[in-house]
Design goal:
about 80% helix, globular
Length: about 230
């Protein structure tokens, strides 16, 4: 029978591997959601909350970054602080980008999101201290990358030219849904990490896991940059 630590390791590795493949080939909005966004008129709080939650749970690039953010956070209080910085960042640019119709090339913004995953994995491996003798402000980095992640969400919404009637209310509902999806996903990850940290295997495989995160970010960034140069 598998131990709890083994199960936790397998679960986290599965999340990373599945997220990598899905972020490359299944990132975006499914057809039924597209049809709803295009056809809906007026305020639709619950549907937009559902769409927001669904997008975050299947928004594997966002989740990979957040896995990196909380990987070495042992206290729920610290998780809340860092996730709050990320939430502030992506909420600001999500609302600002859509309401002001600020268009960002989707390939470039997704490439930056891929870079954010590389950055966090590199940071977790102690790369900045080892190579540069300097540790950047982690909270500030999470906030800044949160801004870019928010523009990524805004870019997805702008692709559909959704009706202006009830736009603010629907955007707020979408953002609330994003937070709910984020909370559910991170709760699962944090619980798995908590089990894993009780065993020696955590220290043995933490380097491999963060290296895997960096690899996922590199592949995502390369994929998006290729799309940018091919389509321009």
């Amino acid at each position: 029978m598998l131990s709890r630590s083994t199960l936790a390791v397998r679960l986290l590795l599965f999340v990373c591997l599945y997220s990598l493949s899905a972020s490359l080939f299944a990132h975006g909005v499914d057809e039924s959601t597209k049809q709803f966004l295009l056809a809906n008129q007026g305020i639709a709080i619950i549907p937009y909350m559902y769409i927001g939650a669904k997008h975050m749970v299947t928004g594997y690039d966002h989740l990979l970054f957040l896995v990196g953010v909380i990987f070495f956070l042992y206290r729920p209080k610290d998780v809340v602080v860092y996730v709050t910085f990320f939430t502030i960042g992506h909420s600001l640019t999500l609302m600002f980008g859509v309401l002001n119709n600020i268009a960002v090339n989707p390939y470039l913004i997704d490439a930056i999101i891929g870079f954010s995953i590389i950055y966090k994995g590199f940071d977790n491996l102690g790369g900045f201290k080892r190579l540069f003798g300097y540790q950047p402000n982690t909270k500030l980095a999470v906030l800044i990358f949160g801004l870019f992640h928010g523009f990524g969400l805004a870019t997805k919404i702008q692709e559909f030219n959704i009706p202006q009637d009830g736009l603010v209310e629907n955007l707020v509902s979408f953002n609330v849904g994003v937070e709910l999806g984020q909370f559910l996903a991170l709760t699962l990850v944090f619980v798995s990490l908590s089990f894993w940290r009780r065993h020696r295997s955590f220290h043995h495989f933490s380097t491999a896991t963060n290296t895997l995160l960096m690899s996922a970010g590199m592949m995502l960034m390369a994929f998006q940059l290729t799309g940018f140069f091919v389509t321009t």
